[in-house]
Amino acid sequence: MSKQEVIICQNFTAELSQKISAHSYDKIFILTDEHTCRFCLPLLQDIPCLKEAEQIVIGPEDIHKNLETLAYVWNQLSSRGATRHTLLINLGGGMVTDLGGFAAATFKRGIACINIPTTLLSMVDAAVGGKTGINFNDLKNEIGSFYPADQVLIDSEFLKTLDPQNLLSGYGEMLKHGLISNQAHWSKLLKFDLNHIDYSQLQNLIGESVQVKEDIVEKDPYEQNIRKALNFGHTIGHAFESFSLKTEHPVLHGYAVAWGMVCELYLSHLRCGFPKEALRTTIQFIKENYGSLYFTCDDYDTLYDLMKHDKKNVASGVINFTLLGGIGDIRINQTASQEEIYELLDFYRETMG
Ligand SMILES: O=C(O)C(=O)C[C@@H](O)[C@H](O)[C@H](O)COP(=O)(O)O
């Protein structure tokens, strides 16, 4: 997989213009959702090479990250004259960069693409590292490919219009990067004031967070090995997220990951000696900032069935986890029995409820 260029922008307009002109393309399409079309696209209006760009607008949020929306994007590209030399710019959150990235990966077997993430989640995670895809049969990212965008341009200016819930959702993935990296970065994340955002401090933290991800992806782009560290919190987190998508209260991805990390850190404590004090501090931080997901023991079987679809699993029915022996001490390919997993869910309800 070719290395992806990630740019933490100082002068967004100039840097984007320069990156676009380095491509040779016949046409440019900009993919947005209804929100980013309204709030973010205007920030690209003065860029001369985008004056003639075609626009494709899709429905917002994870509920639209499906085959129907993907087919709509393919149709738009096809009927409006996109070729193999067309450049697709994905302007949006993780849903747009995941789905748009997969459209770019598959249209005429692959076209050039630039990601401009507009949410914290997509800046530190979804838009970086080349995982693209859609949800299918109520399962998260069930269909997809590894297809890195040629460039990812990150500008925290976009975050100024982001609602607090989406900001916290992205921060969930930053917490994950803190836990899998080192104590110094982790401590900074715990100290950052989420109620009074200092955007230049946040931009620095974003830069560090992206670097954690890039270093891991560079070592193992296709998730054969250490990249599974980036999936910490997701075995149970994705099950929580998919479970909530079927209720009247779907939760944002980063919230589900934060709650998944509570369970997986407890398993880390039991299995790998993750320190009790760090477990306590993390759970307290997550409980205070993210609240909790409500479920009962009648939901355990559903949650367990969802975990069986996790992409890290190698044998059917055996659930694979990434655990931690301490902050930055990554242990991949750990498994747990159904009984142990139910105990984690008991722990979650007792501690977070
Ligand atoms: O980039 C990765 O690798 C990750 O696992 C990052 C995750 O935070 C991200 O949510 C990813 O989309 C989940 O991937 P999946 O393979 O479990 O669907």
UniProtKB/TrEMBL annotation:
EC number: 4.2.3.4
CDD domains recorded: DHQS
Function: Catalyzes the conversion of 3-deoxy-D-arabino-heptulosonate 7-phosphate (DAHP) to dehydroquinate (DHQ).
Protein name: 3-dehydroquinate synthase
Keywords: Amino-acid biosynthesis, Aromatic amino acid biosynthesis, Cobalt, Cytoplasm, Lyase, Metal-binding, NAD, Nucleotide-binding, Zinc
SUPFAM superfamilies with a match to the protein in the record: Dehydroquinate synthase-like
Location of the 3-dehydroquinate synthase N-terminal domain: 56-167
